[in-house]
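Quarterly update from the structural biology core.
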Amino acid sequence: MADATAPKPPADVQPARPGDPLPDIRLAGMDGKIVELATIAPGRPLLVNVWASWCGPCVEEMPELQRYARAQGPTGVQVVGLALDTPEGVAGFLARVPVDYPILLETPGPADASVWLGNTRGLLPYTVLVDASGRVVKQKLGPFEHGEIEGWARH
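Predicted structure, tokenized:
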């Protein structure tokens, strides 16, 4: 799964590691309004899944993420999708595979939000678990298998 072509992050980008605070990430939602990632679900853990509509494994895991998000209810882990994609690509995909959780949009690049979240290899899907106090707990490169999220998200 190594990607030798992934560029090194710029010197001013400090990729998060477990134990680090959630980086200050502000991105547009599907409605175009800017959202601060840390304020989506105050006091709740966040599971941030970085994906793209053109990424086969990302597409395959979306129903599993949707199932997990629905099972969490209003007080459990808040799932957030972070799409490294165009608004048109994401809108077209979500019309075919709708999800209930928030989706944020980002332009891929050497200093995009996924790099700040610790994805230094530039591969997708990439998932980060943030605890209720805003600290990065776990990071995962690659898709979730059916039923894997519950065990992985326990911290």
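The chain has a mean pLDDT of 91.
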